[in-house]
Design a protein that fits this description.
11 helices, alpha/beta, 2 domains, about 400 residues, single chain, Rossmann fold, ten-stranded mixed β-sheet, Glucose Oxidase, domain 1, globular
Length: about 400
């Protein structure tokens, strides 16, 4: 239905029957996804292109979205990576906002948010009480939802049928759809980090490159032999969407890597996959941790940090304590595990995003810690192998 101001009506229906009517923007399509929310105040281009949001309808708790428009895609950094985007396209299924800004103002803006979403076939709904939506998700947990935007809206009953027929979020292996299909190399020849792409954010590549390493990006299902063929100084398992237990091939490779002497870093989903490879269970959080203001505590130093996060699953702390993986960071809000360290192997992992984008950069030192592990590996293990070969 078209409104007097030329906008279209939009409808958001949660699977528990909660119903919202608002104004549509973006693409005029109907979609189904898992309704989640983020408490971030800035960075909607980065959030919307974060592959970890694949299959989800993202509600922004900040009341005004779109106020600085959308920047140029060809605005690249010194490594040739997009400055303002975390992947090549929008990954959220749709967005929900309280107020959408029709007239953005920023020197770097090249288009309105709605125009970008129209280009990529992503719908949005505005003018609803996002506080009520977030309260519902906090009280009842994240759930499936349908978002309809267009001149010919479906009825509430038809939207309910769409939700009923759609695949449950937890049953879909989204990693397969967002991971790279082939290998890519970034940076100059030299010391190498292999990055297993489970739905990585481009800022992870940027952080490794600026520390002087070449990055080889490989698909999620790369085997241990595939990874080691590049003779890496270290391996990173990236963030990504969906239930970690569905990533069986990556879990198997992670287990082989932990057993080897190669330094290993897991980020977000990567932490969960490393945990699963060590016999640690994962579980789904009631409404997840998504935002740029999530506090964690480093148990090795007692220091607290504000972090950027985007995850709906976590590793089980009780099962973790029975493994050789020990707690490194804890969430100061809910006590969930935010980081782990292996007792005997050069393996570290964090649930938050040390690369941020968007968010605070306070925990970039995680990459520096990983570099220390790689330097030690290069000096001892690789150096010893070279010595033996010469003898």
């Amino acid at each position: 239905m078209e409104k007097a101001d030329g906008s279209t009506q939009a409808i958001l229906l949660l699977e528990d029957g909660t119903f919202f009517v608002g104004k549509g923007f973006g693409s005029e399509v109907n979609v189904v996804g898992e309704a989640v929310f983020t408490t971030g105040m800035v960075g909607y281009p980065e959030s919307m292109t974060d592959p970890s949001f694949a299959g989800q309808l993202l509600c922004f708790t900040y009341p005004l979205i779109g106020n600085y428009g959308v920047p140029q895609k060809d605005d690249l950094d010194r490594f040739g990576l997009p400055v303002h985007f975390e992947s090549e396209s929008i990954k959220v299924s749709g967005i929900v906002v309280q107020e959408y800004c029709e007239r953005p103002s920023h020197w770097a803006s090249r288009a309105r948010l709605s125009e970008w979403m129209q280009e990529e076939g992503v719908p949005g709904i505005s003018g609803i009480d996002t506080r009520a939506l977030v309260s519902t998700l906090r009280e009842r947990g994240v759930m499936m939802a349908a978002l309809a935007n267009g001149t010919e809206l479906l009825t509430r009953k038809e939207l309910a049928i769409m939700i009923e027929k759609a695949n449950r979020y937890d049953s879909v292996d989204f990693v397969k759809s967002v991971s790279t299909k082939r290998s890519y190399t970034y940076g100059s020849p030299g010391n190498t980090v292999v990055l297993i792409d489970c739905g990585l954010k481009l800022s992870i590549i940027r952080n490794i490159l600026k520390r002087g390493y070449r990055v080889v990006r490989v698909p999620y299902n790369a085997s241990y032999a595939d990874v080691m063929a590049y003779s890496p100084d270290g391996v990173v398992i990236s963030n990504g969407p969906g239930d970690p237990t569905l990533c069986r091939e990556t879990i198997k490779t992670a287990g082989r890597l932990v057993d080897s002497e190669v330094p290993l870093l897991g980020i977000c989903l990567g932490e969960q996959l490393i945990g699963l490879s060590q016999g640690v269970d994962t579980y789904k959080l009631k409404y997840g941790d998504r935002g740029q203001n999530k506090p964690v505590v480093d148990l090795t130093t007692g220091r607290g940090y504000v972090t950027s996060q985007n995850h709906g699953y976590a590793v089980d702390r009780q099962k973790l304590e029975r493994s050789q993986m020990k707690v490194w960071f804890l969430n100061a809000d809910d006590g969930s595990v935010e980081g782990t360290i292996h007792e005997r192997r050069p393996c570290i992992a964090v649930q938050f995003h040390p690369e941020a984008s968007p968010g605070p950069y306070d925990t970039e030192f995680v990459f520096d810690n990983f570099v220390v592990l790689m330097n030690k590996y290069r000096e001892t293990v690789i150096g010893e192998r070279t010595r033996i070969m010469r003898v």
